[in-house]
Design a protein that fits this description.
This protein has 15 helices and 21 strands. It has 496 residues and is α+β, with helices and mostly antiparallel strands. The protein has two domains: 198 residues, 3-Layer(aba) Sandwich (Creatine Amidinohydrolase, Chain A, domain 1), CATH 3.40.350.10; 249 residues, Creatine Amidinohydrolase (Alpha-Beta Complex). The strands form seven sheets. A six-stranded mixed beta sheet has the order 8-7-6-3-9-10, with helices on both faces. Strand 14 and strand 15 form a beta hairpin. Helix 10 packs across helix 11 and helix 12 runs antiparallel to helix 13. Its EC number is 3.4.11.9. Catalyzes the removal of a penultimate prolyl residue from the N-termini of peptides. It is an enzyme of class 3 (hydrolase). Its cofactor is Mn(2+).
Length: 496
Amino acid sequence: MSMRRTLWRTLCYPNKVFGITTHSLLSRCSRQGFRSYSSLTVNAADLAFGQPVHETHPHLLQPGELTPGITAQEYADRRTKLAAKLPDKAIAVVAASDIEFRSGSVFYEFHQDPDFFYLTGFNEPEALAVIGKDATGTDHTFHLYVREKDPKAEIWDGARSGTQAARDVFNADETGDVSRVKTMLPELVGAASEVYTDITTPDPNLSALRRFLHGKPQRTTEFAELLQPSKINRLRPIMNDLRAFKSPAEIEVMRRAGKASGRAHTEAMRRAWTHEKQLDAYLRYQFVANGCDTSAFEPVVAAGKNALSIHYVRNDDIMQDDELVLVDGGGKYGGYIADITRTWPVNGKFSDAQRDLYQAVLNVQRTLIALCRGSANVSLDKLHSIAEEYLSNELRQIGFDMSSKAIEKLFPHHLSHYIGLDVHDTIGYTRKSVLHEGHCITIEPGIYVPDDERWPKHFRNMGIRIEDSVCVQEDSPYVLTTEAVKEVVDIEGLRD
């Protein structure tokens, strides 16, 4: 960030570093001489932006926040940390997600690229961020190219933030209309010593098809064509190192998602259900009713033997009274997700066999959560090995033959993954890394017993998984999803 821009922000915002204020958007800084705007003064609450800001949505955002729980200052600090990892005169180029269409002009729900969102807080499509480190290695410039405001387009698609807000709200040092990026990006790329990006040139046949179906190429295709392959380095390893460790503010946002999601699970357990689809719909409703923005992913609602499929999402079967139902779902808040799995009896009371198998999984899950601390010196892979050993011991005690790598058949998935802006966060970040304070992960042991003569008959066709979202602290775990009950007595007590 340039000294001039820093000084401008300090003069304009004596009580907070970044973020627009309500007194004026257009002429507030003209008296300092750093900007020359029209003499018109506009209250920010009277303007329309492409996403909530404090002035228009004070029920969602506190003063200084760019997205729920995360301040504009924190976003600026993230860009500073990224720039510090770049060579002198290098640039990082990150694109917003494109709108994905399911058919014709009917689109899927928009999900912003997590790296782009992490660095900018900007939640619109067709945008490009360029973070350039200067030759001295002591400063950087933040370029943000976005869709310009367009009254005709906004009639159909809703408000856009535009280039003025890119400066005044999202604190870009340089901005411009993304439709003119072909005249701006080549100059930045040409002057850069190296380019760090994960933008790749897509399949040309697929690009042609999208152009035919929707009338224009996707922006990422245009961006990719403007890069110089000889200068390109992968950005993802650097971003993973930054994003893997959550700040206190991020953890608090994830805790809010976990609290709302956990309550949704507990409320669902209170009721008697006969159809998976009804439970699915109720769970999604409860996520939002409890404060989340939307569901984090397609829920699994798997009754009986359907639970033997790890990612069963059809959710279209009848729930039998004597079965278990496995529910894997979570909400999203402020861009951050919660991930919870609970398994409970459809009729509210565990049979003896159901209780024995459930308690075996729960015993192991509690032990593994206790190891989610920096002082334990464990990695995700190490935790998984411990899970296999402990689950094998528990299953032997209730009559399972655990010879010949039986645990790999009964527990076929990994114990854990990183969580954050995505359900499987920081893709490519190693599972061998020792967990430290700020890592946020899932702990989700499960046992899935096929209808096979090798296994005790009374356990066959049962699938049980118990999952919580956990933040690693130095001396103790911080469970983000405690509102979802999981003790046998608590689950059964919900129907009393």
